[in-house]
Amino acid sequence: MAETSAGQESKGQALAARLWRNRWLLAAGVVAVFAVYYFAGVSGYALLLALALLAAAAMLPVDAERQSTDAAAAIEASGLQRLSGEYLAAAVADPLIIFDHSAAMVHANAAAFAAFGGLAPGMSLALKFRAPEMQALLDSILSGEVASDAVDYTEKLPVERTYRVSASTVGHATGLYVLVFKDQSETRRIDRMRADFIANASHELRTPLASIAGFIETLRGPARNDPAARDQFLQIMQNQTGRMARLIDDLLSLSRLEMKPYLKPGTEVDLRQTIDSVIDSLGPLAAENGIVVEREFANGRLVVPGDRDELFQVFENLLENACKYGQSGGHVTVSVAAGDDAQQAGFDVTIRDYGPGIAEEHIPRITERFYRVDVENSRTQKGTGLGLSIVKHILTRHNARLSIKSEVGKGAAFTVHLPAR
């Protein structure tokens, strides 16, 4: 009840305010109505009707849209007046520096201090940023040749970062200018990775293609009537086409993995069954290289969430590498044990060979695309240079990780750490 009375009181106040704002218009209308009544002799009912209509019109909002617009403009103006340049600069995520006509720094936001350090009001930006492109940018802005300009600038220390630097005047005749640094380092890194990937893939395909083209030319010429040479060359050509096919298959696998970076939940994989299938499928390769594969599985249920085909590919790549590059050790051990991470339950699958091992400096880069510890040996073993990169991508999808331990002359151990949930 109290709320109803308050609402009615508010409405009454609004009507009274409107009548007061339109008081002069209302008074003029009343005078006009009485003048018509007096001189034209209209009836009393017509007079009352005219007065009622005039009062209703006076109580309606007058030019409500214009009033609303004016009120919004007033609010915006008062809000902007309360904002200072420091607040606006702090709201910018990129490094921002305001300077005057002598290229002396007036203000810098927190991102600028974090990126460049050693900044202070009054510091000469011409001395802080000595690169020729930055000097040219400051000169062009301060000379008034252009109102805004942009250049690419690379900061070497403490780490190399590339920026797209934009310079422009602040307002009209303020004597102030602003530099905004847009970090392009990640974009440039991705561009370099893409260029390197294309170059490496092209090189890996060009080598067998050149070999096939050369043997075809030889078969059509000097070896045309030489059956022994023809059989030998055809075998080499078949090996080279197989190498290209493996490379294309691995490239397609990487592409598919990158297009679906997240794994659908709900599917479970039996590690015991999956790894047994991998060992059986690579039995001929192990026998060919004189390798004995030993199993060391923990007791109990060895189940993890994941995609069976993808985990099969992980263990297949790792065991195949162990059989190829660790053959001098004579045996390979595949073990499954409970994970040693107290924070997260899971299983560790370790594939260990006893071959020549991997030098320590190669381990951090061994999962990069096309990176090889021994180029000639890798190609002899029909490697594409993409196997461990595929392993890394699949494990990322499974929220898992790969660790590598090795000593030269003592073999290598590749351990897959898989979460149990």
Automatic annotation (TrEMBL):
Classification lineage: Bacteria, Pseudomonadati, Pseudomonadota, Alphaproteobacteria, Hyphomicrobiales
Protein name: histidine kinase
Gene3D superfamilies, per database record: 1.10.287.130, Histidine kinase-like ATPase, C-terminal domain
Pfam (any one): HisKA
EC number(s) on file: 2.7.13.3
Keywords: ATP-binding, Kinase, Membrane, Nucleotide-binding, Phosphoprotein, Transferase, Transmembrane, Transmembrane helix, Two-component regulatory system
CDD domains cross-referenced by the UniProt entry: HisKA
Stored PANTHER family: PHOSPHATE REGULON SENSOR PROTEIN PHOR (PTHR45453)
Ranges for domain Histidine kinase: 200-421
Coiled-coil residues: none
Catalytic activity: ATP + protein L-histidine = ADP + protein N-phospho-L-histidine
GO terms of molecular function: ATP binding
InterPro entries from the UniProt entry: BphY/WalK/GraS-like, HATPase_C_sf, HATPase_dom, His_kinase_dom, HisK_dim/P_dom, HisK_dim/P_sf, Sig_transdc_His_kin-like_C
Stretches that traverse the bilayer: 20-39
